[in-house]
Task: structure prediction
Amino acid sequence: MALVKLQTQHFRNLSPTPVSFSPSFNLLYGENGSGKTSVLEAIGYLGLGRSFRVSRHQAVVSHGEQQFTVFGGLDRGLDASTEPDAAGVAHRLGIARDVSQKETTLRVDGEGVRSLSSLAMHLPVSVIDPGVFDIVAGGPGKRRQFLDWAVFHVEPSFASAWQQCQRVTSQRNQTLRNGRLDEALLRVWDSQYVALSDRISAARKTTFDRFKAAFQTLVQEVDVGWTQGLKLEFYPGWDSSQSLLDILASHREQERRMGHTLYGPNRADIRLKFQGRPVAETFSRGQQKTLVILMKIAQGMVLSELGKQVTFLLDDINAELDVGHRAMLARKLQALRCQVFITSIEHPLPDALWPDNQAPEYRMFHVEHGKLTEE
Result:
């Protein structure tokens, strides 16, 4: 499903006027501070339940206001069983946040829902902005987040298992931090923690295998020589040649000294190596950017194979990617039938994105003072 309608209230500097988008490509341009990235940020709230720019909800509320709201209308996408209304909308999503009361309200098709996952499952949003390149250069947490986004949309039970595991981990950590270690209680937490860890790792491994297969198919289609020595490996967070239960037991004293859990799915990683060495140490900045773009496309391929349409938010990619890489990205996303939003300061040149005169249906918007004007 693609986002075809968007309306916001008190969200940064955006105008409350409803906007209609293309289910294919949308090109947004305007000066710095005009509101381009804020549009992507509002879309991100519907698919992620949060901002991809800042960690605090307060930062996105218009000055002097206490609450913001984002409404979105989705088309039926590849789901022929859902009938859209006269405006072409098959599903309606809404999120509101009262920052003074610290309360969030979520709605799907007019009905209140409790979990962000109920909202996010309808609109898979993938962000490509300057910060995304930390997937390669940053720590394991970035790559874990990258993998878990796909796992969430591939394995329906993953979100619940992960939330349960977080609660059990917290209880286990409290027990480890107690002055007098309660071994009997810790064994109870160990048992629950291992069972959930196995479920989570199995879901991650299944999705990673799908992703790796898609990635290997993709690199055969692009002219990038360094992929020959590149290896992607899934690390579950512990030595899988041993049972996690045995590892926890043998490292009890170490975890007690540290006061928290040292082994398990909270330490999982996608290990990227080139000729046996970490990619972050061997690849140039340009190669790292290309790798991340290929990884993002491969994610889209995985969901596309399952009949899901991804909405890609490409924020200011002109500053990060050269003309050739931008054209490659646009061409691949077009082939996957993704919905794409691209922002830039300069007036977009469709001929540069699709030099072979195979441009898809698209809409172009000029953004100024938070208002979008279609051209």
